């Protein structure tokens, strides 16, 4: 879901000391490695001009195997920590929600979390990204057409593989008499997906993959718009979710916090993306950051408060 700054420099490393050499770079010819839904890294294996098929060939390949394999494994692993709202966004929303639970909801959540001692709503909030696979990847977003933010199930989510339907399914499990292990999994998904629902670009457009394909220069560093909204804007203020929770807990909540229907929230996020100026002129610096940071903050705040209201509404007993 993102090409973060960190991934950018990692992805431009070239193992050029190796023969044959492997070059890993964004947007060049070669095999596209899909690290997750946000990151495309192209890997091209370049034949050396004079390929040595003699005695050293095996050794060269061994070097390739050991060094470049480590690099490739690192490339695959690192982005997993940097997904969706990014961990800071998800953890902030989950921690804010935890503070707004009713005693009944808190008791039930504690009972589910007790299956994994030490876990909290914040600690489980990024599990869904770690577990992402081709089947579940589409549960994290929904695309609207460019000319409408009115949800149409037949058009926007015909097969139920989108974030709004995924949320509905988790709520059904939580309300049911399913085994606790299944309910804990539903809780992990729900906490994460309600977060994703508040990242405007998870409700963006298919043609640029929710801004993943909209390249930008943020303070002179290459990135893309999706990544900026997942984590960049958040981290310009703070990369510590405790700081965010303190900052946002004291802010008054807007009235629309009571809108908790996932479809209505999805439409609201779509309208943010459709606002003039949301797509920057490629260069992202002070003016864009100053204009949109308050919107991002409100989305985190609403995400936390609505997640609490959704959980309070579904976990009513004992
Ligand atoms: N992640 C991958 N594809 C996406 C899309 N089309 N919209 C939003 N997020 C995405
Ligand atoms: Zn994302
Ligand atoms: Zn996600």
Describe it.
With 318 residues, this protein is α+β, with helices and mostly antiparallel strands. 50% of the residues lie in helices and 10% in strands. It is built from 13 helices and 7 strands. It has helices at residues 5-11, 57-77, 86-98, 103-113, 121-124, 127-130, 153-156, 163-175, 180-197, 225-237, 241-249, 262-273, 286-314, and strands at residues 14-15, 21-25, 31-36, 39-46, 215-218, 221-224, 283-284. The strands form 2 sheets. A 4-stranded antiparallel β-sheet has the order 1-2-4-3, with helices on one face. Strands 6-5-7 form a 3-stranded mixed β-sheet. A hairpin with a 5-residue loop joins strand 1 (14-15) and strand 2. Helix 3 crosses helix 10 and helix 8 (163-175) packs antiparallel against helix 9. It is globular. Residues 1-65 and 78-83 have low confidence and may be disordered. One zinc ion (ZN) binds next to helix 10.
How would you briefly describe this protein structure?
With 318 residues, the protein is an alpha+beta fold.
Descriptors:
single chain; 318 residues; alpha+beta; 4-stranded antiparallel beta sheet; 3-stranded mixed beta sheet; disordered N terminus; binds adenine
- The 3D shape can be described as globular
Low-confidence stretches: 1-65, 78-83
User: SSE string, helix = H, strand = E?
Assistant: HEEEEHHHHHHHHEEHHHEH
Major β-sheet annotation: 4 strands, antiparallel
Could you say which small molecules are bound to this protein?
adenine, zinc ion
The percentage of residues in β strands lies in 5-15%
Give me the oligomer status.
single chain
Distance between the termini: 39 Å
Total number of strands:
7
Q: How do the strands of the widest beta sheet line up side by side?
A: 1-2-4-3
Helix content: 40-55%
Label the structural class: alpha+beta
Tell me the Rg in angstroms: 21 Å
Enumerate how many helices there are, as a single number.
13
Average of the residue pLDDT scores: 82
């Amino acid at each position: 879901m993102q090409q973060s700054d960190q991934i950018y420099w990692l992805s431009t490393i070239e193992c050029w000391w190796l023969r044959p050499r492997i070059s890993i770079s964004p947007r060049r010819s070669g095999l596209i490695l899909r690290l997750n839904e946000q990151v495309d890294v192209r890997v091209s294996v370049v034949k050396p001009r004079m390929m040595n098929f003699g005695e050293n060939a095996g050794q060269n390949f061994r070097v390739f195997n050991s060094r470049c394999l480590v690099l490739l494994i690192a490339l695959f692993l690192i982005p997993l920590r940097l997904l969706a709202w990014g961990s800071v966004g998800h953890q902030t929303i989950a921690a804010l929600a935890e503070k707004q639970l009713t005693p009944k909801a808190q008791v039930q959540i504690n009972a589910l979390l007790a299956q994994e001692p030490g876990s909290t709503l914040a600690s489980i909030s990024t599990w869904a990204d770690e577990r992402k696979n081709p089947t579940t990847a589409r549960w994290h977003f929904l695309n609207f057409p460019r000319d409408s933010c009115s949800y149409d199930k037949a058009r926007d989510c015909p097969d139920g593989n989108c974030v709004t339907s995924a949320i509905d399914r988790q709520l059904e499990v939580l309300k049911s008499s399913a085994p606790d292990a299944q309910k804990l999994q539903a809780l992990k998904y729900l906490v994460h997906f309600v977060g994703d629902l508040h990242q405007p670009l998870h409700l963006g457009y298919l043609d640029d993959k929710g801004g993943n394909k909209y390249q930008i220069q943020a303070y002179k560093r290459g990135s893309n718009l999706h990544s900026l909204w997942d984590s960049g804007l958040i981290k310009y203020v703070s990369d510590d979710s405790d700081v965010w929770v303190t900052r946002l807990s004291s802010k008054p909540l807007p009235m629309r916090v009571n809108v908790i229907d996932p479809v209505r929230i999805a439409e609201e996020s779509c309208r943010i993306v459709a606002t003039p100026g949301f797509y920057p002129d490629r260069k992202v610096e002070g003016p864009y950051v100053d204009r949109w940071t308050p919107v991002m903050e409100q989305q985190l705040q609403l995400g936390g408060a609505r997640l609490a209201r959704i959980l309070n509404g579904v976990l009513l007993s004992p």
